[in-house]
Amino acid sequence: MKTITNAFPTATFNAAESKATKLKSTLLAASVLAASMITGTVAAQELSIQEKAVAVISSIETGDAKAVSYINPEKYIQHNLAVGDGLAGFGEVLQMLPEGSAKAQVKRSFQDGDFVVTHTEYNFFGPKVGFDVFRFEEGQIVEHWDNLQEIAKPNASGRTQLDGATKVVDLEKTDQNKQLVSGFVKDILIGGDMAKINNYIDNEDSAYLQHNPGVADGLSGLGEALGALAEAGMPMVYTANHKILGQGNFVLSISEGQFMNNHVAFYDLFRVDNGKIVEHWDTIETIPARSEWKNDNGKFGF
């Protein structure tokens, strides 16, 4: 493993970040606990699991009680380390919920087998961007992972953390696109072999659209960010990749490492076109010390 000074620096690690994570989980808690008070299971309208996941996220804002029937109240494994496992853990944080303040708008989503990924704009005590990953069994959610970050101003190229392409296409290329991103993570993010960068990203600035607020478009923006990080003595280190999820042109990489001397989770979403990475979104979240965990499931555990 090599230490690399990466082009994805965005996280601000402070008490507000931890509070935001807890609050987001609290919002989910309100919906999930409501499900336990519904007699029986609300019949699904033949929705896909992707539609169910989006409905659950949207219900944080809308209060739609039907959406919570898509969560299995008897088996719900939580990987948000600020929340206890299952419904009991949600109950402990329910009192933190600020009534009427929740906002949740899913910007993009896709399905990979039993997994659904959502990329969402939240607003609770300030604007946030988050990735959520849900695992389904027999049509119900049984496991949840997430990664949150505060929303920043647009980057030097005028792009935000949430705008850009949303349409899932090229379904027949799903496997090869996942392999491409897996190679990028292995060679570039973990291996630090920048000589291979053109295997994954073309040179023209217009060929690589960047949504990280600290990085401009293209490999030129990448180079400037690398230089700034090196000068500041703040390397970003990817130590392990835990999951690659994708559908068509969208692929999410979930990794672990260090940034600004913190143990962090990296969620990197890539759009692939014609065998190259052409667009990138991300979130970085600090992993709390083991003594602070509210469950034993870990941040990853795929």
Question: Can you give a write-up of this model?
Answer:
The chain has 302 residues and is an alpha+beta fold. It folds into two domains: 135 residues, Nuclear Transport Factor 2, Chain: A (Roll); 139 residues, Nuclear Transport Factor 2, Chain: A. Helices cover 25% and strands 30% of the residues. It contains five helices and ten strands; from the N terminus they run ααβαββββαβαββββ. It has a five-stranded mixed beta sheet with strand order 1-5-4-3-2, with helices on one face. A five-stranded mixed beta sheet has the order 6-10-9-8-7, covered by helices on one side. A hairpin with a 3-residue loop joins strand 3 and strand 4. Helix 1 packs across helix 2. It is globular. The protein starts with 14 loop residues before the first helix and ends in a 16-residue tail after the last strand. The N terminus is likely disordered.
Task: Name the CATH class of the largest domain.
Answer: Alpha Beta
Unreliable parts: 2-17, 29-44
How far the N terminus sits from the C terminus, by CA atoms, comes to: 22 Å
Helix content: 10-25%
* Main beta sheet: 5 strands, mixed
GO biological process, one term: polyketide metabolic process
Protein name: SnoaL-like domain-containing protein
InterPro entries: Cyclase_SnoaL-like, NTF2-like_dom_sf
Organism: Vibrio coralliirubri
Which secondary structure elements does this structure contain, and how are they paired or packed?
Blueprint: H1 15-35, H2 49-62, E1 77-78, H3 86-93, E2 103-112, E3 115-123, E4 127-137, E5 140-150, H4 174-190, E6 209-210, H5 218-232, E7 236-247, E8 250-259, E9 262-273, E10 276-286
Helix pairs in contact: 1-2, 1-3
InterPro entries: Cyclase_SnoaL-like (IPR009959), NTF2-like_dom_sf (IPR032710)
Organism: Vibrio coralliirubri
Protein name: SnoaL-like domain-containing protein
